[in-house]
Amino acid sequence: MDKLLSAAKSRLAEKLEITKNILTDEPVVEFYGRSNLRIENHKGIIMYSSDKIIVKTSMGIITVAGKNLTISSIVTEEMIISGSVDSVAYKDPY
């Protein structure tokens, strides 16, 4: 049932000419150089330290590793991570 709903949302997004992540709740990760990272559609913070931030999303876990990491902005489903980003990894929950 979830796959059918997801497919319907993707088709609707295509017809409305909007990005599908708005309807499907898929995470969006954007880099701004090596010092800023934006994560959209997050579901909460699992771990937060100056060298690692782990974020839950509807599709899995995103781990940001680096130095002097801070969450410089956080709102309902969007956050900005600042610091020296060394790596970003995604882990499927299944």
Protein described:
With 94 residues, the chain is α+β, with helices and mostly antiparallel strands. It has one domain: Immunoglobulin-like. The chain has helices spanning 2-16, 21-24, and strands at residues 28-32, 36-40, 42-48, 52-57, 60-75, 78-91. The protein has a six-stranded antiparallel β-sheet with strand order 1-2-6-5-4-3, with no helix packed on it. Strand 5 (60-75) and strand 6 form a beta hairpin. 14% of the residues are buried. The model has no long low-confidence stretch (mean pLDDT 84).
How is the topology of this model organized?
Elements: H1 2-16, H2 21-24, E1 28-32, E2 36-40, E3 42-48, E4 52-57, E5 60-75, E6 78-91
Antiparallel strand pairs: 1-2, 2-6, 3-4, 4-5, 5-6
* Overall radius of gyration: 14 Å
Identify the strand order in the major beta sheet: 1-2-6-5-4-3
- Reading off the top of the CATH hierarchy, the class is best stated as Mainly Beta
The gross shape turns out to be elongated
Give the helix/strand class.
alpha+beta
Short structural description:
This protein has 94 residues and is of the alpha+beta class. The chain is built from 2 helices and 6 strands. It has one domain (25-91): Sandwich (Immunoglobulin-like), CATH 2.60.40.2000.
Salient structural properties:
94 residues, alpha+beta, Immunoglobulin-like, 6 strands, 20% helix, elongated
